[in-house]
Specification:
Elements (H helix, E strand, L loop, with lengths): L1 H10 L4 H5 L4 H6 L11 H21 L8 H23 L3 H25 L1 H6 L1 H20 L2
Length: about 150
């Protein structure tokens, strides 16, 4: 039971922005998008899977912290977390593809650093972040395309 609670503490915060900042599907559908843009329904599915992988990764790092210095990982995780969480506000609430683009670049770069920091602490944990990095690369390419197609 204690391990389940620790895992949930790692997982639940990743879903906060989805409850606070609702996705405006009308706005998203109104934008010009590249042919490789997935339908709106794909995003919550992929992000849910990625958040579970991130939470497992965090859990593996934090489950036995007695011998690890997680300070660099923690700093990188906070930057990544907050930039990840603010995307919906920037894109759907402010309706600013430009600010969302800047934010997405920060998420992508910080996810690379997060992988590096995780790898120093737990190789399995780092491997769980690879799909997150790949999706963030895709998201960066997508938002760059959306931004330029809607100037």
């Amino acid at each position: 039971m204690k391990n389940i609670l620790k895992f949930l503490i790692c997982l639940i915060p990743w879903f906060i922005s989805g409850f606070i900042f609702k996705s405006d599907t009308v706005f998203y559908k109104s934008l010009n998008k590249p042919p490789f843009a997935p339908p709106s329904i794909v995003f919550p599915i992929v992000w849910s899977i990625l958040y579970i992988l991130i939470a497992i990764s965090m859990y593996l790092i934090y489950k036995d912290m007695s011998y690890k210095d997680t300070s660099d990982f923690n700093k990188t995780l906070l930057v990544n977390y907050f930039s990840n969480q603010i995307f919906s506000f920037l894109f759907f609430t402010l309706k600013s593809p430009f600010l969302a683009l800047i934010d997405t670049i920060i998420v992508f770069i910080s996810s690379l650093f997060l992988y590096y920091e995780a790898k120093e602490l737990n190789k399995t944990s780092a491997k769980l972040l690879i799909p997150y990095i790949i999706w963030n690369l895709f998201a960066t390419i997508l938002i760059i395309s959306i931004f330029f197609m809607n100037l």
